[in-house]
Structure formats: structure tokens, C-alpha cells
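Hey, sorry to bother you again with one of my protein questions. I've been puzzling over a protein and I'd love to understand its fold better. Take your time with it, there's no hurry, and the full record follows here:
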Amino acid sequence: MHRPLLALPAAFLATSLALFAAPSQAQADDLQAMLAEVSPARIEARIRKLVSFGTRHTLSDIASDMRG
């Protein structure tokens, strides 16, 4: 097989891995800031609000007069 043809994909792969290997410190700081803003209580409140609508989905009872 031609060795120059094998070198091209290897060089491309090495370059791609080097570009995406590690985030910069600024990106890491931004990610930490976003993660710090996640609130389990806020997520739970939103889920409870969505549940309170009582709308039907594909597995719900279609004969109910109370829901959906």
C-alpha cells in the first residue's frame, strides 16, 4: 500500500485530536459558572408545573373525563 496515502488520514486525525483535546481555561471557567447556576429545586418546580397541566401523552388513559 502507499505509505503517503496512509499518512494523510493519520495527520488529519492527529490535528483534529489536538484541536479538540482540552478546553481553554476561559471555556472551563464558563462551564463551571453554568453548572453552578443549576438548581435542583428549580428543576423540580418546573417538572411539577408541567405535571400539573395533566395533558395526555401516548400512554395515558383516553377515556378519562378528568385529564387531558
